[in-house]
Amino acid sequence: MNTMTSIQKSLRINKGQALIELTFIFPIMLALLYGAIELGSVISDYLTLTSTTREGANLTSRATDPNTALNAIIAAAAPTIRSTNQAQWRIIYSKIIQNPNVPCPPKPCTYMVDPSINGRLVRGNFAQNSKLGAQGANVTVISGMGSINPGQTFHAIEIYYNYAPDVMTNVGSQLINTTFYDRTIFTNVSGT
Hints:
elongated; 37% helix; alpha+beta; single chain; 6 strands
C-alpha cells in the first residue's frame, strides 16, 4: 500500500511540474509562431512586388500603353497593392531613351529618362522618388551599359512598398527594414 501511495504522489508532482514548464514555454512557442507568420508575410509581399515589376516592364516593352500596364499590374498585385492602401506604395514607370544631345558612338551611350509626357508615370502616394533619376536626367544605373547598342529604348518599373505588419505580429517590425524596393528594366522588344 505504501508503494502505491508513493507512485500516486510522484505522478501528481510530475503533472504539476509539466504544467509549470508549459507555462514558461508557451509564450516562447507563441512568439516563434508569430515570427513564422510574419516571415511568411514578408516573403509573400516581396515576391508579389518582384513579380509585379517584371510583368510591368515586360508589358511596356511589348508596346502596351504604360497606363494600361500600370493598371494591370496593380490589379495583379492585390491584395498587397490596392486602392485602399495607396499611402503604402508607389509604382514608377520610366521610359529610358538615348540622350539626343550626346552623340554615340563612342560607347557607352548616354541614356536619359524620356522627358515627354508618357516618359514617366507614377501611381500610389508613398513619398519616394525614382532611383533612376529625374525626368530628363541622365541614367547611369543600368548594368552593362558598355554593351548596349545606340538607339535602344528601355522600360523600367520601380516599386516602393511600406510593409505594415499585422496587428498580431507588430512586435517584430522593428527588426526589419519595412520599406521594400524593387526594379526591373526591359529593353524594347516591339521596335517602337
